[in-house]
Specification:
The protein is mostly helical. The chain contains 3 helices and 2 strands. It has one domain. It has a two-stranded antiparallel ribbon. The chain is globular. The model has no long low-confidence stretch (mean pLDDT about 95). This is DUF1059 domain-containing protein.
Length: about 80
């Protein structure tokens, strides 16, 4: 199991997500992001806007995703 925070994944807070795979971490982060969107949390909304900008460039998004996956892979197990 490995742990990454919302901030490490491009978010706005120190909420920690723990999972066995990067894909599981992404799903936990998405669930958290949806909750923050429903609450209209200002800091998370700003972070989401940055991700939305990145989505306009598929190559940049793929690079970002690969970088975050590598960061996850390089983490020591909890």
């Amino acid at each position: 199991m490995k742990t990454m925070t919302c901030k490490q994944l491009g978010g706005a807070c120190d909420e920690a997500f723990t999972a066995a795979t990067f894909e599981e971490i992404v799903e936990l982060s998405k669930t958290h992001g949806m909750a923050m969107f429903q609450q209209q949390d200002a800091t998370h909304m700003a972070a989401m806007m940055e991700v939305q900008k990145m989505l306009q460039d598929p190559a940049a998004m793929m690079q970002w995703f690969a970088t975050k996956k590598q960061e996850f892979d390089n983490l020591a197990d909890d």
